[in-house]
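Re: that backbone. Tokens:
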């Protein structure tokens, strides 16, 4: 959208990205259930949901500030770059590489 491409290209990218992002929530939930001790699953999942929902309004405020301060194209580029960096975090942070291992996790009861 920031590069003023045709609408069909924007819709194609949105469709592929929307389909691909549909796999994220089940993976996040599986990791939560795998890594969080059983006695704390309710508290941790509630906290994660509360933080996600509680911080959503700030996204609109931040987007409005970026658009009014820098314009739509620059705001889209900044947000796109932030999403790109966040999506590559599993490659750079060692804690993400430990998700597939059972090291240091007490057995489930």
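Recovered sequence:
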């Amino acid at each position: 959208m920031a590069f003023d491409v045709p609408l069909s290209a924007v819709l194609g990218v949105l469709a592929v990205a929307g389909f691909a992002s549909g796999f994220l929530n089940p993976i996040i939930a599986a990791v939560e259930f795998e890594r969080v001790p059983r006695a704390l699953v309710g508290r941790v999942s509630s906290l994660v949901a509360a933080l996600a929902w509680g911080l959503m309004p700030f996204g609109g405020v931040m987007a409005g500030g970026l658009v009014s301060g820098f314009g739509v194209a620059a705001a889209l580029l900044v947000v796109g770059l932030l999403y790109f960096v966040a999506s590559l975090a599993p490659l750079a942070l060692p804690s993400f590489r430990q998700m597939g291992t059972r090291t240091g996790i007490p057995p489930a009861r």
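Residues 7-97 form one domain. The chain has one domain: 7-97.
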